[in-house]
Amino acid sequence: MTASSAAAPRRGRPRAFDREAAVAAATRLFWERGYEATSISDLTEAMGIRSGSLYVAFGDKPTLFREALAAYGASPYGDFVARAFSEEATAFGAVARMLREAARIFPDPSHPAGCMTINAATNVSPANAEVQDLLREQRNANLEAMAERLRAGQRDGELAADADPAALAAYYAAVFQGMSQRARDGATESELSLTAELALGAWPGTSR
Amino acid sequence: MTASSAAAPRRGRPRAFDREAAVAAATRLFWERGYEATSISDLTEAMGIRSGSLYVAFGDKPTLFREALAAYGASPYGDFVARAFSEEATAFGAVARMLREAARIFPDPSHPAGCMTINAATNVSPANAEVQDLLREQRNANLEAMAERLRAGQRDGELAADADPAALAAYYAAVFQGMSQRARDGATESELSLTAELALGAWPGTSR
DNA sequence: ACAATTCTTGGTCGATCGTCCTACAATGGA
DNA sequence: TCCATTGTAGGACGATCGACCAAGAATTGT
Description:
208 residues, transcription (chains A, B), homodimer, DNA-binding, mainly alpha, transcription regulation (chains A, B), 10 helices, elongated
């Protein structure tokens, strides 16, 4: 690995476009339409570049998608779940914050509705199964991480001893994914907030 | 409108394939991959016919999709929600049956996972927005029908007077859609059953 | 000044998309 | 028997897909 990370002056003709802004445009398009329904020409138009530049700068379409997904995950709209679980002290606090922020972020009209990880590759032809698998594994990994957090909470006494952490995690994952779908169907923040509170009411023991 | 509905003997060469079986094959494929990721050649191969026969018998691709969707809605895997709401005496009974049957049907390996109405057109390019809109409107109509059933239940005293029927319906719709997504991600019947019971625990008053 | 390097332009590649057409096969009615 | 009608076989249509290439432009290092 040779440096290259910093702003070391590179040889050759400099890029004429803002790489970060181009990725942001691609992210928005993939988020809105999904992987397969977004064509290279859709992308080049939105990114303001020609296909040659795209392939030089980003490789092929699946590679660009992975970069767009990483950009989503690093943005405020994509990292709020990870932040909730790393910053909240209790398991209930983390789940509650996850759902309440989802209710606010999913229908926000300043970006495509719902969660990109949930919606970007649900309908995919066999030729692009790798992308579908990538997102599926990410969702299942998020579920497992939530289950692990609940198990830890149970050990610490935050969660009733007779509760089922895996079942609770699966339940909240389903609610979260359903909220994303509802946002895509036009659900408002107030509807999703009510959904979040009803879902939180199922927390065992009501002790919180 | 001139007769033509019954089995009146038609002129000309008879169809060489079973129309109902062909629609069933198309339904399965659309259900599995979604509208856009299913190509005409995919369809003709699965249906066992050539494209010429397909266009004569079914019109174009969106028309065939609508017929496949209708076949899904008339099948045991697609009509169980409607049956739950028409056959159960109480609002809670209908919602409970809807979720419990979804937990059994969504992951059934004898057919594609989840609900076709929910998953068949989530990622669609603008050219096919009509299909996406069709399914979205169907989902929203189902939600409104559930809300109406809960309002009726509230008038009949089945549901606590201070409960919010629209919010409850939106909540159970989100859970239902989330369960479909989880099934697509590999959730088992036992996981989905636990999710259903946790969701039902949020029913107001616990009086049921 | 010149070479090495990198990016942009513009176009081409084979494959596949949904749709339709023509030629032929198989049936019912007259 | 012959015609009208309908379905099938096979291929062609223009458009678009993702990917890549050659030529030229713009920059840095020597």
